[in-house]
Amino acid sequence: MATKKAGKSDISDATQTPNRAARRGAVAITLPEEMNGKASAAKAAVGDKPVFAYIASLPQPQRGIAERIDQLAESTLSGLERSVKWGMAYYGVGDGWCFSCGAFANHTKLMFINGITLDHVPPVTPVAMGKATRGMELISLDDIDEVQIVAWMKQITVMPGVGKRAAKKS
Predict the structure, then answer these.
(1) Is residue 3 part of a domain?
(2) In a domain, 5, yes or no
(3) CATH label of the domain that carries residue 35
(4) How far apart are CA 119 and CA 139, in angstroms?
(5) What would the pLDDT profile of 1-36 be if each residue is shown by its tens digit?
(6) Which long-range contacts (CB under 8 A, 24 or more apart) does 89-94 make?
(7) Does residue 168 belong to any structural domain of this protein?
(8) Residue 23 included in any domain
(9) Confidence of residue 135 (pLDDT cuts 50, 70, 90)
(10) Cα dist. 160→72, 80, 96, 97, 157 in Å?
């Protein structure tokens, strides 16, 4: 199966918000080596802006990886909602949070809540994220298998998420 790799020509102005935030002077954060309950000191907050600010604060290559995961989620999932929780970017559609992306000193974790239910279960069982969570550790943009990640995003968002959220009013 062919894998589409991220490139500069793939990124539209609409999805470059984290980069623009970085150019406005977002302060870099110190990243832990491994999971210790939080991926970073980023404050919990609901919405696009806090997630974009979190991503913009990351060093490379973690920032590039997190930007690409965010772009894949945005282009794939209708009704996408974002939040910063436990020092990571969380993504949800519908009734709860479905997956997260968080940067560490040597990698970026992409974790699917209830990932054990996915067709082709992701390979990494994280520490301190729940027994059903599964995901991947990405070291570079070359580690992103966009076809597989998009398939997992689509699968996980049709299952019940975790954490009650208030429904958005139209």
Answers:
(1) no
(2) no
(3) 3.90.1150.200
(4) 23
(5) 344 344 333 333 333 334 444 444 444 555 545 444
(6) 89/51, 89/54, 89/55, 92/157, 92/161, 92/163, 92/165, 93/157, 93/161, 94/157, 94/161
(7) no
(8) yes
(9) very high
(10) 20, 14, 7, 9, 7
d(CA 128, CA 38): 9
Domains: count for the chain: 1
Structure tokens at 7: 């490139």
Per DSSP, what are the bridge partners of residue 129?
none
Q: What is the pTM of this model?
A: 0.74
Residues 6+ apart with CB under 8 A from 133: 111, 112, 113, 114, 115, 116, 125, 126
Return the amino acid letter for 107. Answer: H
Crossing angle of helices 62-76 and 146-157, rounded to 10°: 50
Cβ-count burial 5-39 (b if 16+ within 10 Å, e if not): ebeeeeeeeebebbbebbeeebeebebbeebeeeb
